[in-house]
Amino acid sequence: MNNNGFVLNFGSDDNARWKRLLDEIDNGNVIPVIGPDMQVAPKISKLDGKTENLHQQLISYIAAQTGVKNHPRTFSQLVYDDNYRHIVRNKDDQIYSLIFQIMSNIHQIDEIESTPSPLLRDLLSTRKFPFVITTSFSPIVENVMQDIWGHVSVLNFNNNPQDSIPERGGDIKTANDIKQPTVYYMFGKYCNNKDRYVVTDSDMMAFCSSWISGRGVPRNLTETLKKKYLLILGNNYSDWLFRFIWYGLRATTTDMKSDVVVEDGVEESFKQFLDRLETFYQENPAEVIQRIKSDVEDRSIRNLNKTTYETDVFISYSRTDDKIARNLYDKLTDKGLKVWFDANSIEKAEDWEAAIMNGIRKTRLFVPILSKNIEQESLIPHEYRTEWNIAASLSSKMGGRTFIIPFSETGFDFYNPLTKLPPEFTSKNATWYQQDDDLAEITAVIDKELDKLKEMESRFNH
């Protein structure tokens, strides 16, 4: 199977199934499972004219370096080739060191396409999929997630549960963890050692055996996935292996509700398997992803249009940063903007919690001031953390449009675990300051984003 098809078990009516899928994506109930075929754009092999995904490009590159002439399509075909075994002197574990060396310098190798697939970027840029599962050992999906979210947690099913390195093993702690930007390597992430990730058929058998035995299986994750839909893209696996992946992620043989991307012309037994699940099949992944992307954008604009804005900017800050917060308020109001600022925006007899909630919901942009003072206040309860969580929750429902613009003191650590910023607060979107009067950049950024939002509102209204 590769990414040339689409399967849904949402019923029998196509329009109803599409609406259900898009609604579930909007509600955060769809988890992508991304394989090698969706990582980079396919490349045409100079040897046999066939398209190659990233794994196959690695195979061709290693084959060329080791004198293999039989055009292997899998790592197993490569490592058991006589020419390859002669070059590496029959060392079965040499392939892992070779892959590690190549992946560590992949951007310098012209023969291998390492630029992420536009389809992958389009899908993940919707920001509707903070938790992503990959069945490849490559970091391509992780890199794209980092570009989009700024900071990404890494979890990894490990075939060696005695391994003490945290990022090579793990499970989510609670169901809420899938709302955090995370990449889960189902078959391990590339490294310098064997038994840590899947390369050959023997590796796959060993990993399947470990999973079936329950050794190291992420219990919390599999329990959570039972209540979600899976969007499986670019997994070039045989019928039996696909069934294992599906079953393994669900840890159940019943109620296997999933969104699946499959190849045009799959094995007959697999078609029968899909038929039994009353699945929905389409053949163009580019159209599917574009439809998802367009729906996310349309819903974002519709939500934008439904909101009656009372202010342009909401300033969230610690009392220890009162001086710079007031300076920012003055600069923005001098430009004619409407600014929510607690000292001026909450009436004396008003319910301040309700006022804050309403203020965030009815503002165009949320600007948290993140200073080193906040890092020192990690152990103290503060209302600005409530404001952060409200804004983050609202932002997660907006699709790709900008809502949160962090205004950060130079040197502020976005990833300090004690500060525990919401994932929607990323350094990538931050504007930095060094002194109290350094406000030209932040006001320019706010002006630019407000112009974009108001143009979107005007376009939709007309």
Explain this structure.
With 462 residues, this protein is of the alpha/beta class. The chain folds into three domains: 6-40 and 115-299; 43-108, no CATH class; 307-461, 3-Layer(aba) Sandwich (Rossmann fold), CATH 3.40.50.10140. It contains 18 helices and 15 strands. The chain has helices at 14-26, 54-66, 75-79, 82-87, 94-104, 118-124, 140-149, 201-213, 219-225, 239-250, 268-276, 285-306, 322-334, 342-345, 352-361, 372-376, 383-396, 440-461; strands at 6-8, 30-34, 43-44, 51-52, 131-134, 153-156, 182-185, 229-233, 259-260, 280-282, 311-316, 339-340, 363-370, 407-409, 431-433. An eight-stranded mixed beta sheet has the order 6-7-5-2-8-9-1-10, with helices on one face. Strands 12-11-13-14-15 form a five-stranded parallel beta sheet, sandwiched between helices. Strands 3-4 form a two-stranded antiparallel ribbon. Helix 10 links the parallel strand 8 and strand 9 (259-260). Helix 12 (285-306) packs across helix 18 (440-461) and helix 15 (352-361) packs parallel to helix 17. It is elongated and about 75 Å long. The two termini are 44 Å apart. Residues 1-5 and 164-168 have low confidence and may be disordered.
